Amino acid sequence: MYRNAKNVSYYMIGDGALDQLGELLAPRRDAMPDQPAVFFIDHYFEKTDLVSRLPVQEWDMVLYIDTTNEPTCESVDAYSDKVKKFLNGQKPCALVALGGGSTMDTCKCVGNLLTNPGKATDYQGWDLVKNPAPYKIAVPTISGTGSESSRTGIICNEAKKLKLGMNSDYSMFDQVLLDPRLTASVPRDQYFYTGVDTFMHCFESLSGNYRNTIVDSFAEKALDLSKEVFLSDDMMSDHNRELLMIASFKGGMAAGFVGVVHPLSAGLSMVLGMHHGIANCYALSVLEDIYPEPYKVFMEMLAKQKISLPKGICKNLSPEQYDALYEASIVHEKPLINRLGENYRDILTKENVIERFKRM
Ligand code: NAD
Ligand code: ZN
């Protein structure tokens, strides 16, 4: 069976493109007069003048997303209840997400819950969403996850100790607006941690067993762009911020099959609450045998950008915590098989995995 692959329908890119958000929303407002738009905005922007520059109407909803922690089933359910209460039976003309992976994923998952019954946990997995979500626009304000162009919205399920997305064509954005001016305010470390997520997705995909030439072509270009940015003198120059946005967008289109970095990273997020980007960095820092070449390039990037990754984050944990780290990593069969084959447990024995965490 061949899969019918979907991509984002429209995208706009350019310095200052945010000024055209109103233009992109106008047809939605015309088609559904008086129906509100719902803006999902990263809480960082609450103390900036961003909202005053957005085409928000008085009947719209502005929802600030707390990204102190990454999205969970509970946070998504809570936002979705808030939005439903605000809408009070009306259909939104559009959902607009301005933020990073956490904000965009929250918007994607809430969108699915507005048109499908039940809770977030019911849709963690592949193709479980039955009804199309409302029209959605993504405006990334930090580059790297590729959430703007991928078909998943990732959420942590605390009860099941599982980090898993709502993988569905309905999770995808209908329109993406890429304005590199928006990423200028990202703190340097955060810019690096989130930005290298693209690098990770792409080399993991390219060194896997499940391959496809179209996906490879996106991944190869995104990988080249991310190397260019992170091996340059100033990863945050105007030009490099634009390149990284493009890399992220392409990386999201290539997203699908990752490898060993993401399972270990998911373990760190589930057990220690560590954020995705930095958790990926720690994961790759102990996978020199499994990914020798990417490991070498990554170390060069860290040095070039003067980003530190202090050691000892998994020191002195309890035996239960080490067990939990192992369990929350090894559960991700698909990516582990992608890199290591069906017998991945022969290499990643419990001792081997715990020893890696201890070295972080
Ligand atoms: P994030 O969205 O959590 O944001 C990180 C930090 O950057 C936050 O503190 C935020 O306030 C701040 N920030 C964002 N934009 C800013 C700006 N312009 N100026 C100043 N500060 C700004 O980080 P992220 O790394 O983009 O997203 C991580 C999440 O994405 C994780 O939950 C991860 O699992 C998920 N993810 C999703 C996909 C996907 O395809 N859907 C892929 C990879 C990762
Ligand atoms: Zn990732």
Characteristics:
single chain, 360 residues, alpha/beta, 6-stranded parallel sheet, 13 helices, 9 strands, binds nicotinamide-adenine-dinucleotide, binds zinc ion
Could you characterize the architecture of this molecule?
Helices cover about 45% and strands about 10% of the residues. The chain has about 350 residues and is α/β, with parallel strands linked by helices. It has a 6-stranded parallel β-sheet, with helices on both faces. Strands 5-8-7 form a 3-stranded mixed β-sheet. Helix 7 (about 260-270) packs across helix 8 (about 275-285). Bound molecules: nicotinamide-adenine-dinucleotide and zinc ion. Nicotinamide-adenine-dinucleotide binds near residues 67, 71, 144, 145 and 147. Nicotinamide-adenine-dinucleotide (NAD) binds next to helix 3, helix 4 and helix 8.
Outline of this structure?
The chain has 360 residues and is α/β, with parallel strands linked by helices.
Bound molecules: nicotinamide-adenine-dinucleotide, zinc ion
How far from one another are the termini? 42 Å
Q: What is the number of helices?
A: 13
- Described by the principal axes of the CA atoms, the overall outline is globular
Helix and strand topology:
Elements: E1 10-13, H1 21-31, E2 37-42, E3 61-65, H2 73-87, E4 94-99, H3 101-115, E5 125-126, E6 136-140, E7 154-157, E8 162-167, E9 175-178, H4 188-206, H5 213-230, H6 238-254, H7 261-272, H8 276-284, H9 292-304, H10 319-330, H11 333-340, H12 344-347, H13 350-359
Parallel strand pairs: 1-9, 2-3, 2-4, 4-6, 5-8, 6-9
Antiparallel strand pairs: 7-8
Helix pairs in contact: 2-3, 4-5, 4-6, 4-8, 5-6, 7-8, 7-10, 10-13
The structure holds nicotinamide-adenine-dinucleotide and zinc ion.
Residues 145, 197, 200-201, 262, 276, 280 line the site of zinc ion.
